[in-house]
Amino acid sequence: MKEIAVIGIGITKFGELWEKSLRDIAVESAINCLEDAGTDRIDSINIGCMSSGLFIGQEHLASLIADYLGRLDIPSSRVESACASGGLAVRNACMEIATGVSDYALAIGVEKMTDVSIGKATYALATVADQDYEAFHGITFPGLYAMLARAHMERYGTTREQLAQVSVKNHYNGSMNPNAQFPFKITRDTVLNSTMIADPLRLLDCSPVTDGAAAVLLTTVEEAKKLKKHPLVVISGFGSAADAIALCHRKELTELMAVKKSVAKALKMAGKTIDDIDFAEVHDCFTIAEILVLESMGVIGPGKGGPATVDGYTALDGKFPVNPSGGLKSKGHPVGATGVAQIFELVNQLRGNSGKRQIPGVKTGLAQNMGGSGGSSVCHILEAK
Amino acid sequence: MNVPRHWRETPERYRMEAAKCRKCGKISFPARLICPACSNKVFDKTNLSGKGKLLTYTIIRTAPEGFEDIVPYAVGIVEMEEGVRVMGQITDCDLANLKTGDKLISKFRRMNEEGKTGLIMYSYKFVPDVGI
User: Fold this and answer.
1) Domain harbouring A228, CATH code
2) Chain B residue with minimal CA distance to A120?
């Protein structure tokens, strides 16, 4: 298996991009990525998008994006695993490189969510749940995480204030991210007094509806060494795993098994343990999700995620910084783009290019991208060499 | 929702029909073709009693399309006495007094209707089990 390097990264502004279409932002992120890489060479296009069909009535992105990239000469594909679609596209690009099928593989994550009303967006997001046995009963995506939050609060004593701190921390980090949808700080009281969406989760526990795209260009370490444009960043491990789609069919409501398995696989491939990881970008689609992910990854013991967040363990200057980008909460969550945007942040941090939110001296980072309420998870481990 | 899509779930939605694995005895709801516990492919039909207790729940205040008119409403995961877990709405109760561990029982209720000429969909919902 060939060793994988990330040589280019690109992103668009995240937010309500009224003037731009899905094809515009997907191509814009790719242009930025190729400019960053300093090469135009691509042997395959790997697109992650959750639901362009429901959000803009457009499927067949493999053709659309290849066309508007002006690259009709190479293989193009689109993968979907709910909100983990972007991570899955990166994983596919990794496999293209590792197997030698492509020498240069582009992964693009994209979602255009604001062309529909909030009711239709809520419906589209709820399609990642079991349609016949969850969504049929009127559950929403925040509602699923609200049930997980209640289970965690009742089992471990996790508090509303601890959940709110996840949002406060991520907004603090995001206030230094010019690409973020909501680049400003918020207070705990603002979170605790925001509109109730699905008890016990409030509006500011939830990641927003966002337009955005991100792209990364992968190649072999051998090729990357020839380019020498940036410090070398490699993907040393990746892992993917699934769990039951319906929450009621999970063995546990206070642990995310897909996260646990995907992270364990990626660590094994990289020859590392969780203690070797310096920082992480994780899937904080809701405040409780970040706590569940940290505990499931083994960064913090079961039930300790809430207190650790309040103690600053996961803060930018903490022992294990989490979501330096601002996470999904502040940066925004264009669902299909998120997994690729996480890789963007890791690479920037590992290159030492993250400006005010740079974590000093980081060498190894982890990205965890979740599908649905934990029905799938994709993990990547990146290292500065 | 087209007619066949709702109609083919009738056994589950109208009478909570489940599948009991003939090899390991695990009950699956809804029915599956492969037992998630032992991979066996032979099942017997069994109906759930409808009785269970509430494991976790939420109160939906921002509803998806089609549910806007009934907010706020509760949705929870109920552990049935057969050990199977089922998600469903919890109704006919004071939402403020709902708590995990509550004993519930399933009732046959109208879920949704698609306008004046569309489908009327029925299913189970859960209500407090007061032992009547």
Assistant:
1) 3.40.47.10
2) B65
Pair (A223, A100) in one structural domain: yes
> How many domains are contained in chain B?
1
Question: pTM of the entire structure?
Answer: 0.97
Q: Do B60 and A140 touch (CB under 8 A)?
A: yes
pLDDT at residue B115 above 70? Answer: yes
In angstroms, the CA A228 to CA A353 distance is 16
| Residue A32 and residue A108 in one domain | yes
What pLDDT score does B131 carry?
76
Whether A225 and A371 share a structural domain: no
Q: What is the ipTM of this complex?
A: 0.96
Please report, for chain A, how many H helices and E strands are present, in that order. 14, 11
Q: Is A283 a catalytic residue?
A: no
Instruction: Tell which residue, A37, A20, A19, A39, has the closest CA to residue A28.
Output: A20
Domain extent, residue A302, equals 140-201+235-384
**Domain holding B87: CATH number?**
2.40.50.840
CA terminus-to-terminus distance, chain A: 18
Tokens encoding A200: 């016990």
A225's CB contacts (< 8 A; 6+ apart) are A232
pLDDT, tens only, A110-158: 999 999 998 889 889 999 999 999 999 999 999 999 999 999 999 999 9
- For residue A277, being part of any structural domain is answered with yes
Question: Does the annotation count A333 as an active-site position?
Answer: yes
Chain A residues touching B30 at Cβ < 8 A: 132-133
Nearest to B78 by CA among A13, A11, A137, A271: A137
d(C-alpha A180, C-alpha A332), whole Å? 6
